[in-house]
Write a structure and sequence with these properties.
Layout (H helix, E strand, L loop, with lengths): L24 E8 L2 E7 L11 E7 L4 H10 L4 H8 L6 E5 L2 E11 L4 E10 L3 E6 L7 H9 L9 H35 L5 H31 L7 H67 L14 H22 L4
Parallel strand pairs: 3-7
Antiparallel strand pairs: 1-2, 1-3, 4-5, 5-6, 6-7
Length: 342
């Protein structure tokens, strides 16, 4: 799918992800301080004009026509829609046509695996649009707060809902980070036990860590910008929440840096173990070679075909020679042990 965008002009709507079998669905949440409602809609025209705050969650990009209709309904440019459908897009946040547009990476656990999914968010005056590739996300707690009226999500402005979404994403970063750190601990045991699959496990863990860093680090910069720059639709009261969120992201970033150093240290330890084992093998082979050098000399010396040779007529000459060779080998081994070479 990724090569389909080649030779197409900017603004061409092509989904570059892998979940082409996911049916496009729309979930509409309407709420205010007095109550809330949730319903499935099949057309963007079903979104009512209401003073209530609304959250429209679009799941699946299989039907490009629905995405195009949403863009036309809310005057979203084709370039923004193209970024939404391009699931390899780097995380970013910008103010476009009186709308706050963010491209982020959701990271969460699913069946003991880390899932990386792109999430696009558009913040309008009283509405938030979210676009995700497949069923399942990190917003279950947020939905529960909306349904039960807990917290400030139904009381404050729409920008607080945007903050709550980012907060839910960051909370799941902690979960993914704990999962990766557990993998690192397990890999450390494998390396210390010098198991055969150590390098493979180090590589897979390092890969997970790289994916996690690439998802988290850009968001740290984006949230910091929200607290320092004047973004429309984000008021000063909500900026205080974003400042606290930025502190969490700094903490996660520091932990990622530490984990990266731990994985690098495990790689060096594994390479050192391989080198040490090789040195032990070479030491044993060298000792065997050192022992057989004088024995080979004696064998060659006494094996020369001279007609007269001292001791050649001695009846027990062979026995004396064998015993002498054994004594020499034992003496050399004892000498190597005394020096700590063996």
């Amino acid at each position: 799918m990724k090569t389909d965008k080649i030779n197409h002009p900017p603004g061409t709507l092509i989904y570059t992800g892998e979940y082409t079998s996911q049916e496009t669905k729309m979930e509409l949440y309407s709420f205010d301080e007095s109550g809330y409602a949730i319903r499935q809609i099949t057309s963007i025209n079903e979104v009512p004009e209401s003073p209530q705050k609304m959250w429209l969650n679009i799941i699946g990009f299989n039907d490009i026509d629905i995405i195009r209709e949403i863009g036309q309904f809310y005057a979203i440019s084709d370039l923004v829609l193209e970024d939404i459908l391009n699931t390899d897009h780097r995380s970013k946040m910008e103010y476009v046509d009186d709308k706050l547009f963010a491209v982020l990476k959701m990271v969460y656990l699913k069946k003991e695996k880390i899932v990386h999914e792109q999430l696009s968010i558009l913040v309008l005056d009283n509405l938030i649009l979210t676009f995700q590739e497949m069923e399942g996300d990190v917003f279950d707690i947020l939905r529960s707060r909306i349904a039960n009226g807990k917290g400030n999500v139904r009381k404050l402005n729409i920008d607080y809902l945007f903050y709550s979404m980012l907060d839910a994403i960051v909370d799941h970063y902690y979960t993914a980070l704990e999962f990766v750190e557990a993998l690192i601990d397990h890999v450390e045991e494998i390396v210390m036990n010098e198991e055969n699959n150590a390098m493979e496990r180090i590589y897979s863990t390092k890969k997970e860590l790289i994916f996690l860093r690439s998802s988290i680090l850009p968001i740290k910069d984006l949230v910091r910008n929200l607290t320092s720059e004047d973004f429309g639709l984000v008021n000063d009261t909500t900026k205080a929440f974003f400042s606290d969120l930025n502190d969490h992201l700094v903490e996660i970033s520091d932990a990622l840096m530490l984990d990266r150093e731990l994985v690098s240290s495990l790689t060096e330890t594994h390479i050192s173990n391989i080198s040490n084992n090789m040195n032990k093998v070479m030491t044993v082979l060298t000792i065997f070679s050192a022992i057989f050098i004088p024995l080979s000399f004696l064998t060659g010396f006494f094996g020369m075909n001279f007609s007269t040779f001292p001791g050649i007529d001695f009846a027990y000459g062979v026995h004396v020679f064998v015993v002498g060779c054994i004594a020499l080998a034992v003496g050399m081994i004892a000498f190597f042990k005394s020096k700590g070479w063996l």
